[in-house]
Amino acid sequence: HDTIMPRYHITKELKRTMNLFRLDASIRQEGSVTRAVANTLETALVEERPDVTITRRDIGLSPLPSTAWSLSSGASYLPVDQRTVEQQQAIAIAAELADELETADAYIFAVPLYNWGVSQHFKTWVDIVLTDPRFGPPDYAIAERLLPVAALYPVEEEVRRGNRLGQSGAG
Question: Which H helix or E strand runs over 109?
Fold first, then answer.
Protein backbone atom coordinates (compact mmCIF):
# COMPACT_ATOMS: atom_id res chain seq x y z
CA HIS A 1 0.00 0.00 0.00
CA ASP A 2 1.38 3.38 -1.00
CA THR A 3 -0.04 4.96 2.15
CA ILE A 4 2.00 2.69 4.39
CA MET A 5 5.25 2.46 2.47
CA PRO A 6 6.49 5.15 0.07
CA ARG A 7 7.56 4.10 -3.40
CA TYR A 8 11.27 3.75 -4.03
CA HIS A 9 12.69 3.78 -7.51
CA ILE A 10 15.92 2.15 -8.58
CA THR A 11 17.76 4.32 -11.05
CA LYS A 12 20.27 3.29 -13.70
CA GLU A 13 22.61 6.01 -12.51
CA LEU A 14 25.20 4.36 -10.26
CA LYS A 15 27.75 5.96 -8.03
CA ARG A 16 31.35 5.34 -8.95
CA THR A 17 31.99 3.32 -5.78
CA MET A 18 29.34 1.32 -3.98
CA ASN A 19 29.58 0.89 -0.21
CA LEU A 20 28.21 -2.45 0.95
CA PHE A 21 27.49 -3.24 4.58
CA ARG A 22 27.43 -6.91 5.53
CA LEU A 23 26.19 -8.12 8.89
CA ASP A 24 26.76 -11.75 9.87
CA ALA A 25 24.86 -13.11 12.87
CA SER A 26 25.50 -16.85 12.65
CA ILE A 27 27.30 -18.38 15.62
CA ARG A 28 28.83 -20.91 13.21
CA GLN A 29 31.75 -20.02 11.00
CA GLU A 30 32.05 -23.38 9.25
CA GLY A 31 28.92 -25.08 7.92
CA SER A 32 26.69 -22.01 8.20
CA VAL A 33 24.05 -21.95 5.47
CA THR A 34 23.38 -18.28 6.22
CA ARG A 35 27.01 -17.37 5.64
CA ALA A 36 27.10 -19.45 2.46
CA VAL A 37 24.05 -17.68 1.02
CA ALA A 38 25.48 -14.28 1.97
CA ASN A 39 28.84 -15.22 0.40
CA THR A 40 27.07 -16.12 -2.84
CA LEU A 41 25.24 -12.78 -2.88
CA GLU A 42 28.38 -10.84 -2.01
CA THR A 43 30.36 -12.60 -4.78
CA ALA A 44 27.66 -11.76 -7.32
CA LEU A 45 27.64 -8.11 -6.25
CA VAL A 46 31.43 -7.86 -6.46
CA GLU A 47 31.40 -9.43 -9.93
CA GLU A 48 28.77 -6.91 -11.03
CA ARG A 49 30.45 -3.98 -9.26
CA PRO A 50 34.20 -4.61 -8.79
CA ASP A 51 34.52 -1.12 -7.27
CA VAL A 52 32.51 -2.13 -4.21
CA THR A 53 33.84 -1.32 -0.75
CA ILE A 54 32.67 -3.79 1.90
CA THR A 55 32.23 -3.06 5.59
CA ARG A 56 31.70 -6.20 7.64
CA ARG A 57 30.40 -6.72 11.15
CA ASP A 58 30.25 -10.23 12.58
CA ILE A 59 28.04 -10.18 15.66
CA GLY A 60 27.72 -13.97 15.76
CA LEU A 61 31.42 -14.54 16.42
CA SER A 62 32.09 -11.15 18.06
CA PRO A 63 28.91 -10.28 19.98
CA LEU A 64 28.16 -6.77 21.16
CA PRO A 65 28.05 -6.09 24.90
CA SER A 66 24.66 -7.10 26.26
CA THR A 67 24.57 -4.04 28.53
CA ALA A 68 25.07 -1.53 25.69
CA TRP A 69 21.36 -1.17 24.93
CA SER A 70 20.25 -0.31 28.46
CA LEU A 71 23.19 2.02 28.98
CA SER A 72 22.71 3.81 25.66
CA SER A 73 18.95 4.15 25.89
CA GLY A 74 19.08 5.33 29.51
CA ALA A 75 21.81 7.86 28.77
CA SER A 76 19.70 9.59 26.13
CA TYR A 77 17.57 11.06 28.93
CA LEU A 78 20.53 12.55 30.77
CA PRO A 79 22.52 15.71 30.09
CA VAL A 80 25.88 14.86 28.54
CA ASP A 81 27.82 15.96 31.62
CA GLN A 82 25.83 13.55 33.83
CA ARG A 83 26.49 10.41 31.78
CA THR A 84 28.75 7.71 33.17
CA VAL A 85 31.80 6.44 31.31
CA GLU A 86 29.90 3.21 30.55
CA GLN A 87 26.95 5.18 29.12
CA GLN A 88 29.29 7.24 26.94
CA GLN A 89 30.90 4.04 25.64
CA ALA A 90 27.49 2.53 24.87
CA ILE A 91 26.43 5.68 22.99
CA ALA A 92 29.68 5.47 21.02
CA ILE A 93 28.89 1.84 20.09
CA ALA A 94 25.39 2.85 18.92
CA ALA A 95 26.84 5.71 16.86
CA GLU A 96 29.43 3.41 15.28
CA LEU A 97 26.74 0.90 14.28
CA ALA A 98 24.53 3.65 12.88
CA ASP A 99 27.49 5.13 10.97
CA GLU A 100 28.03 1.75 9.29
CA LEU A 101 24.44 1.78 8.06
CA GLU A 102 24.42 5.43 7.09
CA THR A 103 27.51 5.18 4.90
CA ALA A 104 26.28 2.08 3.05
CA ASP A 105 24.54 2.08 -0.31
CA ALA A 106 23.52 -1.57 -0.05
CA TYR A 107 23.10 -4.10 2.75
CA ILE A 108 23.47 -7.82 3.30
CA PHE A 109 21.93 -9.03 6.54
CA ALA A 110 22.98 -12.66 7.03
CA VAL A 111 20.72 -13.54 9.93
CA PRO A 112 19.86 -17.16 10.70
CA LEU A 113 16.76 -18.27 12.54
CA TYR A 114 17.22 -20.23 15.74
CA ASN A 115 14.08 -21.81 17.21
CA TRP A 116 11.89 -19.79 14.82
CA GLY A 117 13.42 -16.45 15.79
CA VAL A 118 16.45 -14.28 15.24
CA SER A 119 19.47 -14.75 17.46
CA GLN A 120 20.04 -12.76 20.61
CA HIS A 121 23.09 -11.23 18.90
CA PHE A 122 20.99 -9.77 16.10
CA LYS A 123 18.28 -8.59 18.52
CA THR A 124 20.94 -6.85 20.61
CA TRP A 125 22.40 -5.23 17.47
CA VAL A 126 18.97 -3.90 16.41
CA ASP A 127 18.18 -2.64 19.92
CA ILE A 128 21.51 -0.80 20.17
CA VAL A 129 21.25 0.70 16.67
CA LEU A 130 17.79 2.03 17.44
CA THR A 131 19.13 4.05 20.38
CA ASP A 132 21.06 6.27 17.99
CA PRO A 133 19.14 9.55 17.50
CA ARG A 134 19.27 9.19 13.71
CA PHE A 135 16.72 6.38 14.00
CA GLY A 136 14.12 8.38 15.85
CA PRO A 137 12.12 11.57 15.62
CA PRO A 138 12.42 14.12 14.29
CA ASP A 139 14.94 12.85 11.73
CA TYR A 140 14.42 9.17 10.86
CA ALA A 141 17.24 9.65 8.33
CA ILE A 142 18.63 6.12 8.38
CA ALA A 143 15.39 4.35 9.24
CA GLU A 144 13.71 5.64 6.07
CA ARG A 145 16.58 4.31 3.94
CA LEU A 146 16.16 0.84 5.45
CA LEU A 147 12.37 0.73 5.18
CA PRO A 148 12.26 -0.93 1.74
CA VAL A 149 14.23 -3.93 3.03
CA ALA A 150 12.27 -4.31 6.24
CA ALA A 151 9.81 -7.17 6.55
CA LEU A 152 6.59 -5.79 7.96
CA TYR A 153 4.06 -7.93 9.79
CA PRO A 154 0.49 -6.63 9.63
CA VAL A 155 0.05 -6.53 13.40
CA GLU A 156 -2.54 -3.76 13.30
CA GLU A 157 -4.77 -5.84 11.03
CA GLU A 158 -4.53 -8.87 13.30
CA VAL A 159 -5.33 -6.78 16.36
CA ARG A 160 -8.24 -5.15 14.54
CA ARG A 161 -9.60 -8.62 13.83
CA GLY A 162 -9.31 -9.46 17.52
CA ASN A 163 -6.52 -11.99 17.08
CA ARG A 164 -3.55 -12.35 19.34
CA LEU A 165 -0.13 -12.73 17.76
CA GLY A 166 0.59 -16.37 17.03
CA GLN A 167 -3.08 -17.28 16.77
CA SER A 168 -5.33 -17.38 13.76
CA GLY A 169 -9.05 -16.94 13.45
CA ALA A 170 -11.35 -15.47 16.04
CA GLY A 171 -10.93 -16.51 19.57
Answer: strand 106-110
Cβ atoms < 10 Å from Cβ of 125: 23
The confidence score (pLDDT) of residue 157 equals 43
Whether a cis peptide bond, with omega within 30° of 0, leads into 148 is no
Q: Where are the alpha helices (DSSP H) in the chain?
A: 33-48, 68-75, 85-102, 120-129, 141-146, 155-160
Percent share of the chain, pLDDT over 90: 53
- Are 100 and 89 spatial neighbours (Cβ–Cβ below 8 Å)? no
Per-residue pLDDT, 144: 57
Q: Rounded mean pLDDT of 11-33?
A: 82
**CA–CA separation, 151 and 46 (whole Å):** 25
Please give the model's pTM, rounded to 2 decimal places: 0.71
Torsion sign over Cα 157, 116, 112, 121: positive
Q: Which of 21, 34, 25, 160 is nearest to 102 (CA)?
A: 21
